[in-house]
Amino acid sequence: MPFLPINHHEMLQANIIKPDFVFVTGDAYCDHPSFGTAIIARMLERFGYTVCILSQPDVLNPKVWLEFGFPRLGWLVNSGNIDSMVNHYTVGKRRRKTDSYTPGGIVGKRPDRAIIKYCTEIRKTDPNATIIIGGIEASLRRLSHYDYWDDLVKKSIIIDSQANLLVYGMGEKTIIEIADYLASGLKIQDLIFIKGTVWKTNDSLQIPKDAIKLPAYEIIRNDKKAYAESFMMQYNNTDSIVGKPLCEPYQSEYVIQNSPREPLTRDEMDQVYDLPFMRAPHPMLESIGHIAAMDEIRHSITINRGCYGACSFCALTMHQGRVIQSRSKDSVIKEAKQIIADSEFKGYIHDVGGPTANFYNPSCDKQLDYGVCTNKQCLHPTPCKNLKIDHTEYLDILRTLRELDGIKKVFVRSGVRYDYVMYDKNGDFLRELVQYHVSGQLKVAPEHVSDEVLDLMGKPRKALYDRFVERFFQLNSDLHKEQYLVPYLMSSHPGSTLKDAIILAEYIRDIGYNPEQVQDFYPTPATLSTTMYHTGVDPRTMKPVYIPKSQHEKAMQRALIQYRDPKNYALVLEALTKANRTDLIGSGEKCLIRLR
Question: Which of 65, 214, 494, 579 is the S-S candidate for 498 at Cβ 3.0 to 4.6 Å?
Answer without folding.
Answer: 579
